[in-house]
Amino acid sequence: MDLISSISERHSVREYKSQDIVMDDLGKILEAGRLAPSSGNIQNWAFVIVTDEDKKKEIAVASMNQIWMIQAPVFIVVISDLEKAKRYFGERGDYYSTQNCAMACENIILAATSLGIGSCFVSAFVEERVKDIVGAPDSHRVEGIITLGYEAKNTTRTRKASLYSKVSFQTYGNKIEDMDKVLWDYNVLGKGIEKVKKTQKGISVKTKEFIEKIKGEISKKPKK
């Protein structure tokens, strides 16, 4: 599955099969996280893989009792090294740490989607409890938990807002009418629709030409 398809297909999965994820696929998913961009290339993240059933249950309970999480065969607990970030960027390092880990998480989730593996990003949890469960140092912060596994039933992603509602040009709130039409080349769905429209336009032009030709032939006939 290519990148754009992975982005389009990705959705949060909360029901999983008991099927394990093979280590080769898990390695590819983690490699995607490792290759994410980061502020100043400090790469101040760490990924803790949790497959132990008891630990998974503890983490699910610490995540506001989201017991559905236990179904997933793999948890990835994403942790940031705050001291490293602050050493480079001062107090802004705290902010950058969250951004860095968010980019790594997105890479992980999209890589999983491309391999047919479902995921869900969990951000509601008691941080100190999760840190204790996975043994994270005091200087580190838990940024998120990603559940991974094969989806138990087919679900579709929730409806997303239109480009028009989210995109401005040059200044905030400066909108372009028919934005989806203007940005066809950047809209996967738009490409398909535009192709259909061009085909329809081509047919329409030929039809008009045919009608005009017929009209011309009729006008040439001598009147009785």
Give an overview of the whole structure.
It is a single chain. With 224 residues, the chain is an alpha+beta fold. The protein folds into two domains: 3-149, NADH Oxidase (3-Layer(aba) Sandwich), CATH 3.40.109.10; 161-219. Helix content is 49%, strand content 13%. It has helices spanning 3-9, 23-34, 53-62, 82-89, 92-114, 127-134, 163-166, 179-182, 188-220, and strands spanning 45-50, 74-81, 118-122, 140-149. A four-stranded antiparallel sheet has the order 1-2-4-3, sandwiched between helices. Helix 1 (3-9) crosses helix 5 (92-114), helix 3 packs antiparallel against helix 6 (127-134) and helix 4 crosses helix 5. The termini are far apart. The model has no long low-confidence stretch (mean pLDDT 87).
Main-sheet strand order equals 1-2-4-3
Which ranges are low-confidence, i.e. pLDDT below 50, for 5 or more consecutive residues? none
The whole-number mean of residue pLDDT values reads: 87
For the record, the count of structural domains works out to 2
The gross shape turns out to be globular
Please count the helical segments: 9
The fold-level CATH name of the largest domain is: NADH Oxidase
Strand tally, please?
4
Using the CA coordinates, give the radius of gyration. 26 Å
CATH superfamily of the largest domain: NADH Oxidase
SSE order: HHEHEHHEHEHHH
What structural category characterises the helix and strand content? alpha+beta
**CATH architecture type of the largest domain:** 3-Layer(aba) Sandwich
